[in-house]
Amino acid sequence: MMKKIFIASDHAGFExxxxxxxxxxxxxxxxxxxxxxxxESVDYPEYGRKLAELVAGDEGTRGILICGTGxxxxxxxxxxxxxxxxxxxxxxxAKLTRLHNDSNVLVLGGRVIGKTMAEEITDVxxxxxFEGGRHQRRLDKIxx
Length: 144
Ligand code: RB5
Known about the structure:
This protein is of the alpha/beta class. The protein is built from 6 helices and 5 strands, in the order E-H-E-H-E-H-E-H-E-H-H. It has helices at 14-25, 44-56, 71-77, 91-101, 115-127, 134-143, and strands spanning 4-9, 31-33, 61-67, 85-87, 105-109. Strands 2-1-3-5-4 form a 5-stranded parallel β-sheet, sandwiched between helices. The structure holds D-ribose. D-ribose is lined by residues 10, 12, 44, 67-69, 71-72.
């Protein structure tokens, strides 16, 4: 059961982050915004690493990261052991990465997808449960 969701972006993801915060506020979820706080240029690794370390440190949490393409945030977050960050541009990948990868960080490209697509992706990623079984064996091999 997820108890809290962190959200963070760089300047290129700021607009979509602010939009998604409103979308998440309508759900029964605790949301913590880790920045950035405006569209002034910042370095995505600072925000990506901070969120990834918080998610890795508490199993009951998940995170959403947004940069321009989503690629820089994905590279950053997946360096942190225990984080399974998934860059998604459509809902099928969001569903399958929860079912098969037990994704705990969703990554979006603020310059790649629109707001409605981001909502659809986020909805399915939040509501899909991990399947376990053979997929857990594969996840264990990632961490070894
Ligand atoms: C920032 O200009 C941009 O490089 C960043 O948001 C991201 O797309 C990096 O992967």
